[in-house]
């Protein structure tokens, strides 16, 4: 069911598991929470493209939505439970470069200076 408490839930989350629609990615990125994205396999691959940069910078985990989704997600979660340092490392990479987390502010500043 729909919930109006998503910001509250995200703020408390240790790990987020989500699709990777543009708004979901923006909201999750703003919380700086470790995340496993499961891009929706339809719509021309747009959801996968939404997280390509984060993934290339090792700032998120991605699982393909296919016939092995349940098994792959289960294995990944088990790995995280066995080795919780994985989440700490992911969180460290997410928060290591604050300039990327303020891209809207940087764009606004640039526009105002021109």
Q: Could you walk me through the main structural features you see in this protein, from its secondary elements to its overall organization?
A:
The protein has helices at 6-12, 22-31, 46-50, 52-56, 69-82, 85-95, 98-101, 103-113; strands at 16-18, 35-37, 61-62. The chain is mainly α and 114 residues long. The longest helix has 14 residues, at 69-82. The protein is globular.
SSE blueprint and pairings:
Blueprint: H1 6-12, E1 16-18, H2 22-31, E2 35-37, H3 46-50, H4 52-56, E3 61-62, H5 69-82, H6 85-95, H7 98-101, H8 103-113
Parallel strand pairs: 1-2, 2-3
Strand content: 5-15%
Basic shape: globular
Trace the largest sheet across and list its strands.
1-2-3
User: Can you summarize the main beta sheet?
Assistant: 3 strands, parallel
- Range of helix content: 55-70%
Strand runs, count: 3
Structural class by helix and strand composition: mainly alpha
> What's the number of helices?
8
List keywords for this structure.
114 residues, mainly alpha, three-stranded parallel beta sheet, 8 helices, 3 strands
Give a summary of the structure in a few sentences:
With 114 residues, this protein is mainly α. It has helices at 6-12, 22-31, 46-50, 52-56, 69-82, 85-95, 98-101, 103-113; strands spanning 16-18, 35-37, 61-62. Strand 1 (16-18), helix 2 and strand 2 (35-37) form a beta-alpha-beta unit.
């Amino acid at each position: 069911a729909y919930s109006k408490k998503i910001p509250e839930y995200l703020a408390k989350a240790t790990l987020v598991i989500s699709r990777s629609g543009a708004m979901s990615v923006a909201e999750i990125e703003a919380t700086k929470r470790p995340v496993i994205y499961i891009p929706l396999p339809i719509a021309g691959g747009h959801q996968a493209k939404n997280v390509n940069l984060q993934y290339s910078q090792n700032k998120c985990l991605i699982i393909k939505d296919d016939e092995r989704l349940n098994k792959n997600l289960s294995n990944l979660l088990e790995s995280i439970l066995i080795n919780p340092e994985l989440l700490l490392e992911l969180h460290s990479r997410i928060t290591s470069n604050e300039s990327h987390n303020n891209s809207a502010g940087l764009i606004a500043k640039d526009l105002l200076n021109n």
